[in-house]
Amino acid sequence: MKTYLVAGATGFVGAELVPALEARGARVVRLVRAVSAEHVADVADDGRRAAPPDDLEAGDDFTRIDAAWPAGFTPDCVFHLAARVHVMRDTASDPLAAFRAVNVEATLRVARAAARAGVRRFVYVSSIKALGEDSDPGRALRESDPARPDDPYGISKREAELALFELGRQTGMEIVVIRPPLVYGPGVGANFLSLFRAVARGLPLPLGAASAPRSLVAVENLVSAMLACAEHPAASGEIFHVSDGHDVSVAELIELMAAALGRRARLVAIPASMLRLAGRVTGRGEAVRRLIDPLRLDIGKLRERLGWTPPATVQTALSRTAAWYRSDFPH
């Protein structure tokens, strides 16, 4: 039986990854801030845990991971999902420092502990923002494009990528980085949920002219790609972009959401120039840009190197999201 350690197991993506691993007959150990009383493990003579329980108490930002790591525990792979996520209006006094504390320093605590334990492979879920979203090269973004992150979140994710690859060179642990765009599916929150809710309520949306193609990835497709990155020999030392393989405009996405919900999309075609102006006036310029600017990822490397194809279409993933929405937000 294979064993996997998952940092960030209780989050949106982790909630999909853990059952997918267990369905394969694997054992999953979760890194958590604190463990409940029934999960307290026996302690060996050296004061460390004698055997890995289902949860390892690693403390805030994994500051207690060395003490928590059981003697002789070497999982087959570590998945690192934990992160301080991107927010539109960050209230931290020093956003970059706040992102670095979690996305760089805490990530490296886990990676160093894994390397000391002899873990073979470490799969890190980064973000396309580590490459940068603002420059449109007239084609889909490739892994080989120069990284130009343009906000604290993207900068911290890129710094973590570089630090992990350096750790891999020093220790021999295989590092794999996967960069998703916006991830959606059952359990999604933030702006995607707000848009889904607006469509479900039949509200008119001024996005009928938002026709620029954008890459998205369903959570089940991301998990499928992560499993391939954990197992395929050709993944070692590589960065992979991932998406659904079918880019959609925001207007098309709203139409697909409406179809999944059994509703009629109410789209109003407001020119992009007016939307940009409204974004600047209201201080929501970045949010508007993410709706109307193109963002396309080239996933050819993932397809060709690992033989991966997205198991779910946009339509089936949105149908799954709609079923979750009806269950969790009944009207």
TrEMBL record:
It holds the Pfam family Epimerase. Residues 5-241 form the NAD-dependent epimerase/dehydratase domain. InterPro entries: Epimerase_deHydtase, Lipid_A_modif_metabolic_enz, NAD(P)-bd_dom_sf. Coiled coil: none annotated. Residues 136-153 have a biased composition (Basic and acidic residues). Residues 133-153 are annotated as: Disordered. This is NAD-dependent epimerase/dehydratase family protein. It comes from Pararobbsia silviterrae.
